[in-house]
Fold this sequence. Notes:
about 475 residues, alpha/beta, Rossmann fold, 2 domains, 6-stranded parallel sheet, 16 helices, globular, binds adenosine-5'-diphosphate, binds alpha-D-glucopyranose
Amino acid sequence: MEIIHLSAECYPVAKVGGLGDVVGALPKYQCQAGHYAKVVMPAHNTKFMHQNEWVNDYEGDIWLGSYKLHYVILKEKTHKLGFDLYCVLIDGLTNREKVYDTDDTERFLAYQIATLDWLCQWQHLPDVVHCHDHHTALVPFMMQYAHAYRRLRRVKTVFTIHNGLYQGWMGWDKAHYLPAIARGSEGLLDWGGMINPMSSAVRCADAVTTVSWSYMHELMEKAVGLEGLFRQEARKCHGVLNGIDTQIWDPAVDTYLPHHYSTEDVQAGKEKHKKEICEMFDLNPKNPLIVFIGRLVAEKGADLLAHAIGRALHETQGRVNFLVLGSGADFIENELSALKMFAKGVYNCFIGYNEALSHRLYAAADFILMPSRVEPCGLNQMYALRYGTIPMVRSTGGLQDTVKDFGEQGGFGIRFNQATEDDIVISTHRALQLYYSQDLFQAIRARIMTFDHSWETSQENYRRIYEG
Ligand code: ADP
Ligand code: GLC
């Protein structure tokens, strides 16, 4: 089957969060399963673009309203990601250092239109166009109703929601950017008086998926106004849990790690990493180490961290270390930085994005904290499991689907119900209790490393959806 993935991010070309990881891995596993999967993304101005060789695969012109834009389809020469990678270059619009910017409506519209224009030039048709998140969400509508793309009408479309909070809303004053569409089809773009790309994709795609079963149920209850639509379209909506790229995320081979380990030497392996990280960040290696890795935004519960950590350190009399890696809202960054003054030796933070450090933290940590208010899937807890790090998660979305509390039969993690300081503090006490029950702690650690969250199962679920 030939599958074309459209996405704003794809690791290692450009990654802001989990979307990049997913689109960098799923096509590779689809190719390994015998499909012909490709990624078509905007040509962002990232390191990867400069460090690799590209060929001009196609050039053309499109109209964005009254602006004529020239686009170039660049193809990565060596197939190094395990799938064909195409980047859409529109000078001044796609080639920015930032993946997301303030004029995303125009930028991503131009990228979507150029991609469809190019697909229409192909001699053959692909089997599936698989769109990810709102940046690509107008594609299923345009494939059905834009006169220029009639040729693509019979190609199947799948729309995957990685984050339902961002729907790509735009005013009707921007409608002139769209290509000419069939009379009467405007209603499929409208939601509450705005153009809502996500709602159009939910209505026009052949299948709609999101990245965990629980999040699909949550969307039917609460989806910034689209909940009724998800219920109405329930028959074509599916939850497909993400996988992780076990060829990259494996502590036995991870190229970012200075030392490797596996289930056989997990204790010694993690100790080495923890010692080094504790030295680097001036933490106490005798204490358990709890890390947070992620975007510092309210969705992730990051606004709760500084106060909750302060309280947990006070209540446990400094018998635990916390280390935060992340960037995001200024006020959260400031609070987390300020806490360093008051909790020397047991708390530290690194404000910024650092891929290499994140891998070392998964390896060094005893626990990973994820107090998310919303978590469609969450990859951090799956990486953590693979690295023998016990997840402490709020029961929501994909966290609920992948983590079982150690108090339950067969459980291995720590779960809590509310995204509150209280629940984080209580979970810290429970983490300490588990840490000092060393036999149980070591047994859980070795067991979680063996869990199978690889892409093989998820890619098979996508195959069934494509065929369905
Ligand atoms: P989301 O996509 O909502 O941010 P996910 O859990 O799906 O959440 O994926 C987050 C990904 O981004 C993981 O690979 C995580 O390790 C990575 N990540 C997040 N923040 C940082 C950071 N500051 N430095 C390095 N990696 C980060
Ligand atoms: C989104 C979600 C996250 C998910 C990721 C990949 O960014 O916030 O929960 O893991 O997409 O699907």
